[in-house]
Amino acid sequence: ELFGDVVLPMVVLAASVTTKHGKVLFSRQFVDITQSRIESLLAAFPKLRDSMGDSTKQHTLIETSSVRYLYQKIEELFLVVITSKSSNIVEDLATLQVLSRVVPEYCGGHITEKTVVRNGFELVFAFDEVVALGYRENVSNIEQIRTFTNMDSQEEISFERQQKNQEREAKELLKRKMKEIERDRRERERLGLPSFSGPSSRNASSGGYGGSGYGTESHASGAGSYGGSPAGVSHSHSVGSGGYSGGGYGGSSSGGYGGSSSAYEYKKEPVVEKKAQRKGLVLGKKETTSTIMDQLKKEGEISDSSNSGRQEEQQHYQPEPASSEPLEIEIQEQMQCIFDQDGALTSLDIMGLFAVNAVHEEATQVQLVVNTTPDIQFRCHPNIDRDLFNSKNAIALKDRTKAYPIQAPIHVLKWRHQTTDDSEVPLRVGCWPTSGQRGVTLINIEYELGNRRPYQLHDVTIRIPIRCKDSPDVSCEVGSYFFDRDTDTLEWNIPLIDSDNSTGSIEINARQWEDNGDSSWMFPVSVHFVSTTTFCPLTVESAIGPNGQIPFSLKESLSVNKFTIG
């Protein structure tokens, strides 16, 4: 079909949002057509629409001698899709229907000229997920488009996961402190003692209300006062866990009101004066981390090796510091992987972005030479020379008179890879539940590192739902684990999985509420990790500027958007 002097294929040419008077607010072209030609087509649209006299219909179309208009009214604006006359009208109507749901979603529901202009870039990326090179992609709902366009930061995900772990540990510690206070109160009531003590007041040196004495100051001479030290009088302070100068309210049993000895006790041995820090009113002596961990071990919520495991877990993978090179290149990938309960791979979806950031002016007109893989299809930014990339694997601006903006990362490449071949998964996780006697279920979870690339997976977390009567009995050979009673979830943490630690397993014995032989309660199992090795083996060979080679830094990251078993 002729379009001027150009033969048009059976594709979607452009998608636009205009006012009823023909003002163009937003337009996305999917084939090589000049801007002036698109503007002239959109300028003729209001006259053609008025001449048809059917502007009130839900879906309408107009055919001219060269193109076909499909449009839909969205509040006071019009969504217009321009196609060639030989394109499939059924596919075009489906495309129009999807785009009509995209526009309100990304404009916040209230569609006006301002909201369309303000969200123009988001609409460009969303439209690109619906139509690629003029052909409709296999997307049917907004959730898929949101998933494809959102590229979360792996540093943010790791930080949020660390924050949640810390909050969960703080809540567990608070619960145990409250239980300890309650036990201590009951003990003091049974012994007929005042019930205003802290959780550790039974220890004579713990301090706090209800300790061995109101004050803890001991005098070498009786001439001194509580607040002063005349000449020739020395004071020795028994320092407890805190409080006001000299050990606080309820320090050691050296003396004071309510102490186990006289109000002021003379010290025969020489002592060195040590001033206590003013920390304010403190309820009891602060327990050490080892004491809390011992209590958790008794209740069966962590393993004997969890102290060292937790210390390893706190050493989260830290991203590399910012580079000082004139050119920064970043490769980001997000993975979505779904297995069924039997361990068969349902889907593996990898989405990647290649970003270029010109830090200095010398890198604003850089040309990159990269190595790609033939089994992954790449899509170039509209301003990138697609022919040069396809023929020579070179990334350069289509218009050589233009330049990259300084300190503004630009996504120049996109790619997506979908497969059901489980040999390509970076990490394979297998679940083996076995029903035993008296409602006890034996669960074996194992992992195996994929060998497609030399992966190094950091901060690996595997969460298994465990709905049981008591705390499960766990045997863990790699990493550490933590059982959360609030969510009935066992969290297995492995700081690093690489070629030296490519396999591992954990064994769980859990007593269920009902012995019905059904193991579906332990699914879905979720997996999270970050990696500096990407799925796509994309490498940058060189960066060439107008004056020769340009030094550059390369940052690669692979993060998990969704990884479930069952």
List strands and helices in order, with pairings:
Layout: E1 2-3, E2 6-7, E3 12-19, E4 24-29, H1 35-52, E5 60-63, E6 67-74, E7 77-84, H2 89-106, H3 113-118, H4 120-130, E8 131-132, E9 135-136, H5 142-149, H6 154-191, E10 217-219, E11 235-237, H7 289-298, H8 306-314, E12 327-339, E13 345-358, E14 367-371, E15 377-380, H9 386-392, E16 394-395, E17 410-419, E18 427-435, E19 440-449, E20 457-465, E21 473-476, E22 480-484, E23 489-497, E24 503-511, E25 525-531, E26 539-545, E27 548-549, E28 552-565
Parallel strand pairs: 12-28
Antiparallel strand pairs: 1-2, 3-4, 3-7, 5-6, 6-7, 8-9, 10-11, 12-13, 13-17, 14-16, 14-26, 15-17, 18-19, 19-24, 20-23, 20-25, 21-24, 22-23, 25-28, 26-27
What is this structure, in a nutshell?
With 566 residues, this protein is of the alpha+beta class. It has helices at 35-52, 89-106, 113-118, 120-130, 142-149, 154-191, 289-298, 306-314, 386-392; strands at residues 2-3, 6-7, 12-19, 24-29, 60-63, 67-74, 77-84, 131-132, 135-136, 217-219, 235-237, 327-339, 345-358, 367-371, 377-380, 394-395, 410-419, 427-435, 440-449, 457-465, 473-476, 480-484, 489-497, 503-511, 525-531, 539-545, 548-549, 552-565.
